[in-house]
What does this fold into?
Amino acid sequence: MAAPGKHIGHYMQRNGRLLRYNFEQLWGNRSFGWTPALRQQAAGITTESTESIVIPRKKTWSKEAVLEALALTVSRDPTAHPYQFQDDSYLSPRTSAEFRLFTLSQESGRSAAKYFVNNNPKFFTKDFAEPHIPCLMPETVSLRLEEVTEDALKERIGLRKVAAAVDMYDQLLQAGTAVSIETTHDLLDLICFYCDRDPIEEGGPQEEDAEEGAEGVKRQKPKGRRANDFLKFTWKEKNNAERIFNLLPERNTQCYSALIRGMVKHGAYAKAFSMYTDMLNNRLTADVHTFNALISAAPEVREKYNERWDLITELLTQMNQQKVHPNLLTFNSTLKSLRRCGYMAKTQAPHTLNEMRALGIAPSLATYDHIVAVFFKSASSGPSNIDILEEMITELKGTSFTCQDPNDVLFFSSAMRICLDNKDLELGYKVHSLVEVGENWRLLGDSYRQSIYYGRFFNLLCMMEQIDEVLKWYRRIIPSLYYPNSQGMRDLLQALDTDSRLDLLPTIWKDIKTLGHDNKSELVEELLGLMAREKHSPEVLESFAACALDVKSVIDGRPNHEWSASSLSHVTTLLLWANKSQQAWEMLQLFKAKNRVPSEGLLNNFLSLCHSSGDSQRAMELVQLSAAFCLPATSGLAKQTLAEFELTEEQRAVVSELEAAAEPSD
It folds into this structure.
């Protein structure tokens, strides 16, 4: 028997006729969409491939390929908590308050860990991570070069040591050492960006109050957010940036640009335009970043709307004259400033957008957000304005975005607010479908803005959608994407009431407890009011009574919580309708203990229950309770008790005395 290799070699030396014949036999008569030209081309390739065989090299996969492949096989679980909280299921937040606390704690812990790692790199010299993640490794934050050299200055600039960099620069000048213009540019950029102060380190001590600057503006830190987000300093007169700038023998565009942008960033708008005028007098050309900063500062230096727009137009004209090509941020800054130009905004914003497209610059979400803000300043925007947003969403359908402007995260929440104000459910669905394209959900912003967006979307659903669809979305986005506040749950209760699905109220009460809103008295009272408004089937009344008892146990478990008269009446009524007389009577006694006045209808219902059970003792006690509150219904209750109940002489005497005392005097 011949060796297998010999047969294989003999087979590969044959011409391609047999291969082509087999190919035709296998595929020629099958309708797989192959055209004759494709078959001929495939046969030709087969013939040529018999002459030489090229074995492909081994496929090299990236280290994340397995994880990426696995990620494509799963989708978001709507019943799970948000992905950032799944490291520890025990600590996963279940209420909006816990969500906020967990988010702040997680961010604080991350900042503290980064602060420790960066300040103690000696404890983290080994890297076991695979693949290597550079951003998780400790950064070099300690100074290593102590001699007075330009390299030491560069090191301080790279580590963002503003005070140390300025001190090193002064030492170099005193020693007569010239500093290169590139290093000087980097130093000016550093000083202007941080307003001549050392940046606040993450996890380190934070300053509380900002100092008053050259413009006389003192910015306070808003409450409820991180200090790093809002802590801004104002530009001081004759700070180190201006001093170093004045010491330069030659000043170029980059030096002027650093100071102008720093002045705009830190509130010295008038000085920025003065510096720009000085740059023009020195026959220098500004760059695009300088123009962007000046355009955004234009509304701050002009009072009238037309003067603001004239200044913006002048800056754009100068850009054209100086042959500076605008970028996306140029037009976004123009549109943002137009929002403060009053009546001129609606006429100039479309022209700005058309000019932007004529130059081949694709708008970002911030561009559309500025357009939205121009045309939807009031709640009553009108049908013509809502058409603008609809055309905008139709144009963006199926588009995946990346963040190109810090204001990109504002668009979706603004668009959903307009849908809610105009009660346009169809447009709301279109906006949300755009959010679900690709990774557009990342442009919803942080957890705070994400809650605003989903809160508006859920409010719109509760207001305009059928209850089955509302409940479908309710299960889809809560709590995996959204922790509703008490107003969101009230919107859901109103939606259940509108579609006559009050039988679901006990289930919603369980969610209210889980979400931590059972301490909201208005929400709990509205829930009880809906259940006690009218009678239902015995099965529903039974579930309502169980829910009412659960509400009672929750309220009684809070010593500082006070029962309202309406809540007591609703719980008592539900227990009466479910034939839980003993528990209903205990609730009635709470009226006297809590000094709450029962309603006349509730007392009549109790009297009817006593009559059906023949309980004359409780009927007499009911009359006594009414007399204790001096209710006008006391006389009628006493007469009905005397007429319909078999009372003992002692009971009759007590009821008759209460009737006489309740009779109005002449």
